[in-house]
Every structure is written in structure tokens, then in C-alpha cells.
Amino acid sequence: MRRRETLEERYAQALLAAAREAHAEKEIAQDLVFLGEILKAVPEFLVFLAHPSVDQSAKEELLREVGERVHPYTFNLLKLLVRRGRAGILPKLASAYFAALEKAGGPVHVVVRTAWPLSPEAQEKLRARLQEALGREVALEEEVAPELLAGAELVISGRRLDASLRGRLQRLRRALGG
Fold this sequence. Notes:
Layout: H1 7-21, H2 25-41, H3 44-50, H4 56-67, H5 72-83, H6 90-103, E1 108-114, H7 120-134, E2 138-144, E3 151-156, E4 159-164, H8 165-175
Parallel strand pairs: 1-2
Antiparallel strand pairs: 1-3, 3-4
């Protein structure tokens, strides 16, 4: 039996189709990463957009500020989601878009989490090694996660590879029966 498509997957596929026509797949992918950063830094942003008692004009005024920094297709999708009361899917929209893009032969989306920010040289070296290993172009997204202590954690096509010190310590604790 075929799995039912989620709402965010449908919106992501529609956004990807529009982006492909405009040759703006990468730009829109960057927009979605940017929106994800906003949602992490300011959780109230989503609460404000999704709250039914907040006036629609106030929501659209806030969106206009974001709209100045994103592709018109991304901006239009944001407005549509807010008007339809579906802003709650925003946190999952980026991963759905990247999955659709990857499935359509686009770059493999890789999230690299490190305890400290990677230098541009280290990012490029990692991207090159991943592209060589995967045999495809790689879209690298970096997240700083001090709780990892050292090392890195990679998420490639939904699979998590943990090479962090925190992960090693947790595995050691489990192995010792703790």
C-alpha cells in the first residue's frame, strides 16, 4: 500500500515545480534554510503566524519584512500558508522540499552539526569528500551544536551518522551497561 503524501510534501512539490520553471531551485532552497534559522532563533515567529486570533493584516505586515529577503515564490507560498491557516507546516517544509529536490535528481541535502562553526575551507573540503563518496552534488547546511562537545554529526537523506564526542560517550555508556 502506498504511503499518503503529507501536506508539507504536497506544498514542497508544488514549490519545487514552480522553482524548476524559474530555474530557482537553489535560491528557494536557501530561502527555506533561512526560514528555518528564523524559526529556531525566534520561535514566537511561528506562534504569531499560526495564531488564529492575530489579525491577518499584522501577519502579512510581518511577512512583508521577510519577503524582501526571499524569492517571490517563497514569499507567495508563505502568504498562502498563513492565509489558509497552515503556517504550522513551516518547520517541516524545508526537509520536504530537500527530499523532493533530491528525489528529482537534485543535490543531496546534508546537514552537518558541529560543536564549533566550520571554516569556509573545511566546509568546502567536506562538501568535496561527500560529493566524491555519494557521487552526486551536495547541498551542505551547517548547524552549530555545542552539546556535541567535539566531532560532527551528519544527516544525509534522513540518515544520521554520529561521529561526535557526545555520541561516542553515549555509546560507551550503553556498552558499559549504564
